[in-house]
Design a protein that fits this description.
The complex is a heterotrimer of chains A (400), B (364) and C (166).
Chain A (H helix, E strand, L loop, with lengths): L1 H8 L24 E5 L11 E7 L2 E8 L7 H5 L8 H5 L6 H16 L5 H29 L4 H21 L8 E2 L2 E2 L7 H24 L2 H7 L7 H7 L4 H4 L7 H4 L25 H25 L21 E8 L4 E8 L7 E5 L1 H7 L1 H4 L5 H11 L3 H5 L1
Antiparallel strand pairs in A: 1-2, 2-3, 4-5, 6-7, 7-8
Helix pairs in contact in A: 4-5, 5-6, 5-12, 5-15, 6-7, 7-12, 12-15
Chain B lengths: L1 H12 L3 H37 L15 H10 L11 H17 L18 H8 L2 H12 L3 H32 L4 H7 L24 H22 L24 H27 L15 H21 L7 H30 L2
Helix pairs in contact in B: 1-2, 2-10, 2-11, 3-10, 4-6, 4-10, 6-7, 7-9, 7-12, 9-10, 9-12, 10-11
Chain C lengths: L2 H12 L3 E5 L5 H7 L1 E4 L5 H10 L7 E9 L4 E10 L4 E10 L4 E3 L8 H12 L2 E3 L27 E2 L2 E2 L3
Classes of the chains: A mainly alpha (400), B mainly alpha (364), C alpha/beta (166).
Chain lengths: 400, 364, 166
């Protein structure tokens, strides 16, 4: 325990370096260190991820993630299907924020083909994107609380998420995997009730946001569990490719909706919350949690602005701009959007065919997870679970 | 009351050794009836309260509003297969649940349920209770070691460290009360708090106590409040409840010392935990809140109604424990130890010092 | 600086190690983000990346994506998309290697982001990265044979006794 107490005096846990392969031999048992397998099945709801933690008593010496348990060959599939047929597969990658993923893919293909979208379609897309971001953050915050032992905020968050899923169900019939945002438009028009449901949701969600803050975020026990744990310095984050709340939690003000605007995000005013180390060190788990809570609030602000500016009596067909045949010219594109987890990028190579030649996905959870070994060295076993919860991974996206 | 029971049995089957033994057995098994009845209610209360706190309904299908759910749970546990891990130490493994239950059950011998029923008349009641809560530790160690499972061992080690450490602040809190009461006998403590809510120890005790005279409630109440809070927090740790439930935490990878147990043995652990919760709540109610006394003299204070008051107060604290469990996150093991040794023990010692000074200088 | 200017700068610094400039002509966005410079000599990719990261005028501190590509004519490519956040510059690089000798220097020590992407490129496409600290498969099992994303990949019939074609 002395090391743990000493560590609190330092600003960085241990010098950061990439551990060479010889040092990581999880199958060879060493006498002074124990290898603990945090197996593919987890008590916490993160999906099928295997971590081999090399421990010295309770202290984590190294963590080696093993992926691939949910690998479903998205990239190989996408070479066998036409461009519109890829969209349901895109849904299933990040299944907690599929609207964001679909928007990224649709945007990539639209940028390749220079498709101009009607106003109404843009507004609906941004509205659903922000609702989806809130829904994803609700899961992240709820499960993060559960990892720390607080069972009740999880249910409050899911109660709010029910409302969002009902809105989606009213529009496109599905609660989780929508196939809604198509290349050049949407699959269904907006149901007349949806805007009213959104207004009611915004009001209710602000109250829940306040409640979860009081119950979880500013709870002394939770702060003790989450502050000064899993510190990620800003330069390591940028070099390591972190994005989303992981990057903003380390103090770097970088959000693609502001820095590389897409769709109609430049018409709305919203803040970009960053971590400030307010309860501990800059870049700890509490900062990432705080960034997610603030982003929830900012998304509610954006939704309110959308509801004000929405073109109410616009009767354009949402599928007006959908091309009959999606066949981009030969070339490549790298296109990116900001999802709830970070920067989702699509690298599409087309060879003038109705099927893509190559679709490569830069998934934010994959990249953020690669930083897990770096940020969890030197902390206790119980902290490892909390750190994993703060990275907010979705295995569908990590493994594709 | 034991005499009444004895003569009743002698009337039934005639004088002799059998009558004596039977009388003793029945008398000793009375708290068991209370525990079993209370466990049924407490399990349902936990499920329903947690559900209502989380904005859902809880069990609704078994019986109207789910009231038969505990019965369903008990039937399920009774008919499960009893497994033992292959390389487990059979003797330790099998005996452990019984020792844990016995440790919790022994505490009921000193609890005064009513003015006419006080279990065994132990005149060092509180001291006996603190001592007996250490037996549970042995049972937990046996369970963890005998399971042949490194996670169970880790969990049981943590639990043992936690229980032993938190006995000290609990003892210090109890010490302040004992100094005011002047006795360690639980039944006498309850008798001293007769006469109404102003005589309860949380407000400093009755006026006629140990020559206090006058009303020093204003002076003693804050310190008694501190003692009470210390005792409640320490008792949460003694019973392995959140925020101190590291040994049984599901999401901490280790499922605790009762991972490998199934069926009846698991039911015993479960029952022991609830019995423990009741016992510490009952002790809190006797020490600070008057035991079997009613808050208003003359209002429902017939001797047998004391049982209702006693159980009611204990159940209130049990409900508070359930409430806390579903509200707060859990503490990490080193934070738990930090709180015990660096926060609660200094506070406890300071309280003992202050209360002792007040009692010495005011007693005449 | 626009990316054509960056290409000129690279060309002047590295000479014939930098190949042609492929401008994406579809849309403005494509031109800005995905026009790429061929790095003709694949052994120098790491030096080019170091130069791009450390030159004060360029300052490409962020690797966006490292992806592998099967060109269909027995060559494989590795594409690097880079971004300079402060200066709002983008550039892409592409290295092409023959299929039967797919070896490229690793850029893990330039941006540690590349670590897992290179492992995936090895896993899926079979491109070996020299100097990578941990060259293992990442998504598939360690004893899988073959590299699935290649165009003429045929899955094995049996894997550990289980029939593979479903």
């Amino acid at each position: 325990m002395a090391e743990v107490l000493d560590r609190k005096m330092q600003t960085l846990p241990v010098p950061v370096k990439v551990v060479p392969a010889e040092k990581i031999e999880p199958n060879r048992l060493r006498t002074e260190e124990m290898v603990l397998n945090v197996g593919p099945q987890h008590p916490s709801t993160h999906g099928v991820l295997r971590l081999e933690a090399v421990l010295d008593g309770e202290l984590v010496i190294d963590v080696v993630p093993f992926l691939g348990y949910l690998h479903r060959c998205f990239e190989k599939h996408s070479e066998a299907m036409t461009y519109p047929q890829v969209i349901p597969y895109v849904d299933r990658m990040d299944y907690l924020a599929p609207m964001n993923g679909e928007l990224g893919y649709a945007l990539a293909v639209e940028r390749m083909m220079n498709i101009e979208l009607p106003e109404k379609v843009e507004y609906i897309r941004v509205l659903f994107n922000e609702l989806q971001r809130i829904a994803s953050h609700l899961v992240a915050v709820g499960t993060f609380g559960m990892d720390a032992g607080a069972f009740t905020p999880f249910l409050y968050c899911f109660r709010d998420r029910e409302d969002v899923l009902e809105i989606f169900e009213k529009t496109c019939g599905a609660r989780l995997l929508y196939n809604y945002i198509w290349v050049g438009g949407l699959s269904h028009d907006l149901h007349p009730d949806v805007l009213g449901m959104c207004r009611a949701f915004v009001k209710k969600s602000r109250a829940t946001h306040k409640e979860v803050n009081e119950l979880l975020t500013f709870n002394k026990i939770f702060v003790e569990r989450a502050a000064n744990i899993g510190v990620l310095p800003a330069d390591v984050a940028i070099n390591g490719g972190a994005s989303g709340p992981m990057l903003r939690g380390s103090g770097v003000k970088w959000d693609l909706r502001r820095n590389d605007p897409y769709s109609i995000y430049d018409r709305f005013e919203f803040d970009i919350p960053v971590g400030t180390g307010m309860m501990g060190t800059l870049g700890d788990c509490f900062d990432r949690h705080w960034v997610r809570m603030c982003e929830w609030e900012q998304s509610l602000n954006i939704i309110e602005q959308i509801l004000e500016k929405f073109p109410q009596n616009d009767k354009t067909d949402v599928q007006k701009a959908v091309p009959k045949r999606i066949k981009p010219a030969a070339g490549e594109i790298y296109s990116r959007v900001e999802t709830a987890r970070g920067e989702l990028g699509y690298y599409i190579v087309s060879k003038d065919d109705i099927k893509p030649w190559r679709v490569k996905v830069r998934s934010p959870a994959f990249v953020n997870l690669s930083l897990l070994p770096i940020i969890s060295r030197g902390y206790l076993m119980a902290d490892l679970i909390v750190i994993l919860g703060s990275v907010d991974i979705v295995l569908g996206e990590v493994d594709r | 009351m034991f005499q009444d029971l004895n003569s009743f049995i002698v009337d039934l089957i005639g004088k002799g050794d059998l009558a004596d033994i039977l009388a003793v057995v029945v008398y000793a098994a009375l708290p068991l009836v209370v525990i079993l009845g209370y466990a049924l209610v407490a399990i349902l209360a936990e499920m329903k309260l947690s559900a209502w706190l989380q904005d859902r309904l809880g069990p609704m299908r078994t019986g109207p509003w789910g009231i038969l759910q505990p019965l369903a749970d008990i039937l399920k546990l009774l008919q499960k297969e009893d497994t033992t891990p292959t390389d487990a130490d059979k003797k330790l493994f099998n005996v452990a649940p019984f020792i844990v239950f016995i440790g919790s059950y022994l505490a009921f011998a000193a609890l005064p349920f009513a003015s006419i029923y006080a279990g065994a008349r132990i005149n060092t009641g509180i001291f006996y209770l603190i001592a007996v809560s250490g037996i549970v530790v042995v049972g937990i160690l046996m369970a963890g070691w005998g399971s042949n499972n490194k996670y169970a061992l880790l969990g049981s080690m943590r639990s043992v460290a936690q229980i032993i450490s938190y006995e000290i602040p609990a003892g210090l809190a109890i010490l302040s009360v004992v100094m005011i009461a002047g006795t360690m006998d639980m039944q006498t403590m309850c008798k001293l708090q007769q006469g109404g809510i102003q005589n309860w120890f949380i407000f400093g005790g009755p006026k006629s106590l140990a020559g206090f005279g006058g009303n020093y409630a204003w002076l003693l109440t804050p310190f008694m409040l501190v003692s009470f809070i210390l005792y409640i927090v320490a008792s949460l740790a003694e019973t392995n409840r959140v925020p101190f439930d590291i040994p049984e935490a599901e999401s901490e990878l280790v499922a605790g010392y009762h991972t490998e147990y199934s069926a009846m043995k698991f039911a015993l652990f479960f029952l022991a935990e609830y019995a423990n919760m009741f016992a510490v709540s009952a002790i809190a109610s006797v020490l600070f809140f008057g035991g079997w006394n009613s808050p208003f003299p003359g209002f429902l204070d017939a001797p047998w109604l004391g049982v209702i008051w006693f159980i009611g107060k204990a159940v209130t604290f049990v409900l508070i424990q359930i409430w806390i469990r579903w509200t707060l996150p859990r503490l990490r093991v080193d934070q738990l130890m930090h709180i015990c040794w660096k926060v609660m023990i200094p506070f406890g010692m300071a309280t003992v010092l202050v209360v002792g000074t007040i009692v010495t200088f005011l007693a005449h | 600086m626009t990316n054509t200017e960056i290409y000129d700068k690279l060309k002047s610094a590295f000479g014939e190690k930098i190949g042609e400039w492929h401008e994406q002509t579809g849309t403005e966005y494509m031109k800005r983000m995905s026009s790429y410079a061929d790095v003709a000599d694949s052994g120098y990719i790491r030096d080019v990346c170091l130069y791009l990261r450390d030159e004060p005028e360029l300052g490409f501190d962020s690797l966006l994506l490292l992806s592998s590509l099967d060109n269909g004519d027995k060559t494989l490519s590795v594409t690097y998309h880079l971004e300079s956040r402060e200066k709002k510059q983008f550039i892409a690089l592409k290295v092409t290697v023959p299929e039967n000798n797919a070896v490229v220097p690793s850029v893990t020590d330039v941006w540690s982001h590349a670590n897992w992407h290179e492992r995936e490129a090895w896993d899926m496409m079979g491109i070996k990265f020299l100097g990578h600290p941990d060259m293992r498969r990442i998504l598939l099992d360690e004893d899988w044979i073959g590299h699935p994303l290649r165009k003429e990949y045929k899955h094995p019939d049996f894997y550990r006794g289980m029939k593979v074609p479903y």
